[in-house]
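Section 3.1: Structural characterization of target chains.
Under the original work plan, the team committed to producing a structural model for every single-chain target entering the pipeline before any wet-lab resources were allocated. The record below documents one such target. The sequence was received from the expression subgroup and is listed exactly as submitted; it comprises 133 residues.
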Amino acid sequence: MQPVSADHFTRYAFPGRLLAGPRGGAAFLLRRANLAANRYDSDLWLLRGNEAVPLTHDGEVNAFWWAPDGAVLFPRLTGEDKADSGAGLPLTVRYRLHPGEPGEAREWLRLPYEIDGLAPLEDGRLLFTAVYD
């Protein structure tokens, strides 16, 4: 029997936050150890019947929500957005991906606030709460 070492953690995946979609199916986050970056990567996966399909591959999705039309919404900061956020500028960016449609996720929402709550209203508008200083 081999002793347990740090690289053993790279062999395991940790599913979590399973949410049923409004039009069937479900999605979840899958976390894996990334020893090179000294972090856990987290990606969004979709359950279609008995098959799990990855929707993201960058390892940076840590939350998601279902839109009423069956699209998946998730936070993502890329390139210059990461630099702005790292410099302390408030920013929230959400991407939208419809599992039934081909193509990449597209930016859906950009606000110059740190949003801590977001909810759709019946008339199609959004209600959000944010920290503002």
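The chain is about 5% helix and 45% strand.
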